[in-house]
Hints:
- This protein is mostly helical.
- The chain has two domains: 11-116, no CATH class; 120-196, Orthogonal Bundle (Helix Hairpins).
- Helix content is 60%, strand content 3%.
- It has helices spanning 11-21, 28-37, 51-74, 94-99, 104-110, 112-116, 120-135, 139-146, 158-172, 180-196; strands at 79-81, 88-90.
- The protein has a two-stranded antiparallel ribbon.
- Helix 1 (11-21) packs across helix 3 (51-74), helix 7 runs antiparallel to helix 8 (139-146) and helix 9 runs antiparallel to helix 10.
- It is globular and about 45 Å long.
- The termini are far apart.
Amino acid sequence: MTEDLSPALDLCEQLLVLLRERPEGLSEYELIQALKRRHSTHIPNLPLTDKLVLFRSHFLVFNALYRLRDRLREAASAHLAISPMAIRLLPYGAGEAALAERDPLRDYYLDLDNLRDTDEADVERLLASFWTRMQGGDEKQAALELFELDRSSEPVTAVLVKQRYRQLVGLHHPDRGGSTERLQSINLALEILQRYYH
């Protein structure tokens, strides 16, 4: 049985506890599930099948991850690699801070207005843009974005695509409260990516 995370710890510290327990790293999905299993009070304890709950959980975790990465860098104690598929602590390298460039993703997740101002209609528009790009012919990029592999820190492979597919189906299957439309999008994205990664 796993111990609950202390409510006195902020979300950054709770994430640090989980990442230290798993030096091989975790996916975003595994991290959110671990927080829920340990009764973290910092993310919504609601099913991820609701699009807005999923967005808010994702945003809160990534906000905390970027704040944690800044803290670790300032303390020169570790480097935090952040991508939806692989979040892990790495040894600190003194040259990394000097090489750091402006990171638009970091800027987005550290601006809490983006959390407050994004509603269910905005999340729906993000999903709808997938289908628009599909019809416009940019199918590979649209599929990578739907699978959140467009910014992956590791090379995209057939194994990674299948792993992400299983995670997304687990989250969005209609038998588990997900939507048929979302599942159709995921299945189509898999078909597309299998043409490029096999």
